[in-house]
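General statements about sequence and structure are easier to judge against a single worked case. No coordinates are needed to read the tokens, only the vocabulary itself. The sequence in question and its structure tokens are set out directly beneath this paragraph.
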Amino acid sequence: MFLRKLYSEPEGLFQPIEFRDGFNLIVAHRPTANMGGSLNGVGKSTALDLIDFCLLGSYKKNTGNRLVAAKDLIEKYMIVLEFEVDGVDYIIKRSAEDQNIVYFSRIDAKLEEYTLKSLSPILSDLIFLPRDYKGRYLNTWYRNLMHFFVKIHKHKTNTFADPIEYMDKVALRQFVCYHLFFLGIDNELLYKNNVLVVDHKKALETRKSVQEVAIESYGIEDIAEKRSQLQQLRRDLRKLEQNIEDYKLSENYSDAEEEANKLTATVKELWLENISDRNRIKELRSSIADKTTFTTADARRTSLIYEELNKGFGLDVRATLQDAIEYRKKLIESRQNFIQSQVKDLENRIAERNVKLNKAEEERSNALSFLSARRAVADISEAYLAINRKRSELSELESIIATNDRVERQILEIETEESKLNLEIKDFVNGIQASDVEKITDTFLDIYSAIYKNEDRKPSFSIDDKMTTDSKVEIRVKVPSGLSKARNQGRILIYDLTVLLTMIKNKQRGPRFLIHDGVFDGMDPEHFNNLYIFLEEALHTGRFQYIATLNESESGGKGALSGPLADDARVSMKQLIDESVLDLTPNKKLFGEQFDD
């Protein structure tokens, strides 16, 4: 991707900027020595903001957003950027008035309307989608990837970004994925690590939340106690449900109390009748036991008395008494049969009553149970409220326990996978040292040596494993501490150029430009001159664009080199101004009027 042209529609908001291969400098200077006014605030960084704006940069109303501050000046214009990707020219237009809408197409086609969200993955794939890369690339990374190539100072901020962690609010483990992608090194393992770390953190947070809810809602801190409470809730719920069911059954009677009274009277009546019949049986059986005491021997003794008076009369008396005895025996026998028949009838009637009595007692018991249920659940609506509360409490506790169990399992699975992945990452880092890292280091040292020729102390570039951190990998860029008063800017300059040239060598898809705002602040003029020569020579190995801002100053100062360029330098300040893609002065600001940059 190469930038072609930046301008406004309609014309007049700012001077159109046409970009070319190599050095593209935006310079702030004073055409005459007696011209007053600051070189800061003329619009250098704002011009870069406009490029970033067209590349879907943020337009949030936060401190330091120069475009939001300049809204009254720019909202009536479209900001237009023309660029090239794989030999094809494209155009993109965006307005501050409706900054969520973007117009985009090939330059020879009809413009189409997009939202920021819909165009972002399209631009990402157009610019970054790799052809033969083995690692991981996501088109949701677009702005994070583009931000590496577009580094612009925030308003009134003097510190420059770190070369590796070049954005705020992004984890180092994610940066590692981006940098390996830029350098053409397989980032699959580090992408997996990032996903696992995120999942692990979420799982730990979820477990903490579950435990907090358990403590706040139930006052319990361990899972065993939770399970015990769960069992108690289930028992309470079953008891309530049974009471409700009993209450519903009792509604089958119009009046359970009256029914219970009737059944009690029936049982009492049956009991009394049975008692009466049992007494009757006892009496009948007792009567059967009564036998005559006048025996044949008694008749013989009686007849002997009469024989003493008259023998014949005595014999007649004996015969008569014997007949009477026989008759009485027959009479008793007949009475026994009758009584036994009566007893059997009574016993049958008692047995029939017992059947009725058992049934009546069972019905009476049910009626009394219903009445008991009514007393236990006097108000059915209150009972339903109670049961719903129990069900809700049970459901919540079951959910807490199920979630806790699921999260605990997830944490164990993640930790197991992390342990396995850590070994793979360690082997991976060791494996790339002799190939990828060595080649990148050579490029890094070549750039450093070309710019800082007289510096004996050497910088270092390394990719090492650091398993004690979330990122698992550390990418280190070190330069000598005395390099300049802006040591960190030197690190960024060398490393960013290393990435850009590595991408060119690897023929990777992506931007072929770097935008550096304020990176030359305080830079030694000799080092700047060497950089200029290096970039000229590097163009012979592949096309690229280096876009940067610079303030002219003979004695140093904010945004300027630390001093004047030497007379024998390859380039002079006048030449830099003449070759610049945009020159601004205190009297010729970007938007043609006073504006705090």
Notes: The CA atoms of residues 54 and 255 lie 84 Å apart. Confidence is low (pLDDT under 50) at residues 249-254.
